[in-house]
Amino acid sequence: MITKDEKNEKNRVARLSVGAAVLITTAKIVVGFITGSLGILSEALHSLLDLMAAIITLLTIRVSSKPADTNHNFGHGKFENLSALIQTLLLLVTCGWIIFEAVDRLAGGQQGVIVNAWSFGVILLSIFIDYNRSRALARIAKKYNSQALEADALHFSTDIWSSAVVLAGLVFTKIGWLWADALAALLVAMLVIWVSVQLGRRALDALLDKTPKDSLEKITNTLNQIEGLKYYHDIRIRTSGADTFIDLNIHVDEKMTVKEAHDITEEIEARIQEVIPRSTVHIHQEPS
Question: Residue 279: which domain range?
Answer without folding.
Answer: 213-287
